[in-house]
Amino acid sequence: MSKFIFGRYLPLSSVVHRLDPRNKLLLSFCYIILVFLANSWVSYLILIAMTLGAIWASKIRLGFFLRGIRPLIWLIIFTVILQLLFSPTGGHVYWHWAFINITQFGVINAGYIFIRFLLIIMMSTLLTLSTQPLDIATGLASLMKPLRWVKVPVDTLAMMLSIALRFVPTLMDEAQKIMNAQRARGVDFGEGGLIKQAKSLIPLMVPLFMSAFNRAEDLSTAMEARGYQDSEHRSQYRILTWQRRDTVTWLIFGVGLILILISRRW
Amino acid sequence: MDNIIEVQQLSYQYPDSGDRPALQQVTFDVHRGEWLAIVGHNGSGKSTLARAIDGLLPFTEGTVTVGGIQLSPETVWQVREQIGMIFQNPDNQFVGATVEDDVAFGLENRQISRDEMLPRVRDALQRVGMADFATREPSSLSGGQKQRVALAGVVAIAPQILILDEATSMLDPQGRQDMLALVRELHREQHLTIISITHDIDEAANADRLLVINDGRLIQEAPPATIFAQGERLVELGLDVPFTAKLAAALRVRGITPPDGYLTTEEMEAWLCQSGLNT
Question: Are the beta carbons of B233 and B225 closer than 8 angstroms?
Answer without folding.
Answer: no
